[in-house]
Amino acid sequence: MQDKDLKEIVAQNIFYLRTVNRMTQYELAEQLNYSDKAVSKWERADALPDAYVLKHLSNIFNVSVDYLLTEHTEQDKKVETATNKSKDRYRALIL
Question: What value does the mean pLDDT of the chain take?
Fold first, then answer.
């Protein structure tokens, strides 16, 4: 089996994080000051976001840039999502 292309990995991760966070492509694009067409291209693996956008995405989704660049199993994704939800609850308590 051939390893996935970096564009495909990033595309899957952006799509997964966006949908788990119940965001539309338009909503994500607004936060990034990009068009929804750009987000669509990233999610189709037609283009790769630049380093600035990857950093901004990592902040929006509360993950590392490394997470965006790495292939994950379904189990990894579930653990990461649960961890982020716990962090969000903790932040809410502090505020």
Answer: 85
Long-range pairs, 17-20, Cβ under 8 A, ≥24: 17/57, 17/61, 17/63, 18/43, 20/77, 20/81
pLDDT over 70, % of the chain = 74
Q: Which residues of 35-46 are buried (b: 16+ CB within 10 A; e: fewer)?
A: eeebbebbbebe
Give, as one character, the DSSP assignment of residue 44. Answer: T
pTM above the 0.85 mark? no
Give start and end residues of each alpha helix (H) in 21-73: 25-32, 36-43, 51-61, 65-69
pLDDT score, position 72: 87
Res 1: pLDDT: 35
Question: Angle at Cα 14 formed by Cα 1 and Cα 94, nearest 5°?
Answer: 130
Q: Which residues contact 67 (CB under 8 A, 6 or more apart)?
A: 13, 58, 80
